[in-house]
Amino acid sequence: AINVYPKFYFGRWYLYANASYKHKTDIFYGIGNQIPDDKYVGYLSDVFLLNVQPQYFFHKHWSAGVALSMHYEKLQKSMIVDSLSKSGVNGCSPYFAWSIGAVVSYDSRDNLFYPQKGMFFKTLLTYSEPYFGSAVRMGRLTSEFRHFVPIRDEFVFAWQASADMVWGKFVPFQLLPTFGGCDLMRGFRHGRWRDDVALALQAEFRMPIYWRLKAAVFGSVGDVYNWNDWHFVMPKFSYGVGLRLRFNKAKVNLRFDI
Q1: Residue 182 DSSP one-character state
Q2: Going by C-beta distance under 8 Å and a sequence separation of 6 or more, which residues neighbour residue 49?
């Protein structure tokens, strides 16, 4: 995999971009919040992503701009992919989706990598349309809020709320909201749960140990839902502890979580 995340500042203008190419093996568990652990299939795909978000700071902490994104994915042909396609799962055929939208954000954090105080908020609304050349017709709304509360002597309480939702017909399963991985709902494999809507809430308590070494205790709760069958079940939980080792004055950290 190749990932590039350039960020540029030009006076009041800020440009965020993300470009990546992945030749990856992944797992598809299914769609919904009641999929058993033993019902999954593996697949191989080529993925190319490009996101560009030029924003203008109209206030000290507030910025707004446009969002452009492109997503191309092709699954390698196999008996597994053919069986998924016959079962009605969208995303088995190669597809190209590009979207345009708007982004608004607020950022008062004291540090980008390891904040100790401040808030961060970002909302992104995008739309993909076949009349504009996209193979997918869908809308997407993503919102995230983070709050960092200093307690005393580098003790910090941090919490985060996240909502990701899509609407449209025949949305590829790869584009459905999900959580997991190393950031949101740590402890779950990314893509284990996916559907039209993904909601999550997580908190972390950070404490100093010695010199550049810190510890963290965290927990998360969240789930996925379907617009046509908003079925509530017991939410998914994750929790753990971790160590943080600061590398430099910019507070770039090496993170180890269990």
Answers
A1: T
A2: 18, 19, 20, 21, 69, 70, 71
Pairing of strands 62-75, 2-4: unpaired
Work out the burial of residue 224: count CB atoms within 10 Å of its CB; fewer than 13 is exposed, 13-18 middle, 19 or more buried.
buried
Per cent of the chain over pLDDT 70 is 99
Q: In this structure, are residues 48 and 84 in contact, taking their beta carbons and an 8 Å threshold?
A: no
DSSP structure class, residue 132: G
d(CA 258, CA 248): 24
- Within 81-195, strands assigned E span 95-107, 118-128, 138-152, 155-168
HSE, CB side, 13 Å, CA atoms: give it for residue 164: 16
User: pLDDT digit string (tens) for 214-223?
Assistant: 999 999 999 9
CA 215, 110, 7, 220 torsion-angle sign: positive
pTM value > 0.85: yes
Interval 162-171: pLDDT, tens: 999 999 988 9
For 8, the enclosing helix (H) or strand (E) is strand 7-10
Q: What is the pLDDT of residues 5-51, one digit of tens each?
A: 888 988 999 999 999 999 988 889 999 999 988 888 888 999 999 99
Beta bridge partners of 210: 213
